[in-house]
Amino acid sequence: MSKWWVSLLLMALVARENPFEPSKNVGQTALGDEVPDYFRYVNVNLPSTARILTKVTLTYKTLDASTHTESVDVNQRIDWHYPIKVTQQAAILGKQGKIFRVGAFDFWIHENKLYLHTAHKIQRSFVLINPYRIVLDTDRDEQDFRQKVQVDEEYVNNIAIETHDNFYRFSIVLDGQYQYKIEQKNDYLVIDLH
């Protein structure tokens, strides 16, 4: 009889509130609405006297919080005019993905979702036609931007940013007409096209 009570107690502890609701897969690695905050990239500008990159050294923490260093010998000529870029954007996008930089913001496409990396709150969104585009107005800070970036990928032809008195205006020119839904997730705006 006591085994029956223990079994009943254990079943009550592991039961979900709604057993018909699908369970969440904790180990799922596919990019969904929640964007993992992985390292994207860093640019390192070297002084005008730099001519040969001899070594690259990375310091990282492991699962047990211990710190380790990994060095790679390079010994190749460099042009100091161009920054050295270290990136792991494939952790977010997969190997085929591209991140586009518009103003100080990262923008990318994954499946039918558009991602804009910004902590600024969205004020409003609307659609304009000819060309068909989604316009997003977000809060702004003191920086001024006016830039247009050619994307030419599925769903998006280009993206632009302009600075107004009280907001940034992003204009995303699409390759066709879509319905859309916008959500703010962590430090990202996620635009779901359908």
From TrEMBL:
InterPro entries given in the database record: AMIN_dom
Domain of life: Bacteria
Domain AMIN: 111-193
Any single Pfam family the record assigns to this protein: AMIN
Record protein name field: AMIN domain-containing protein
Species this chain originates from: Helicobacter gastrofelis
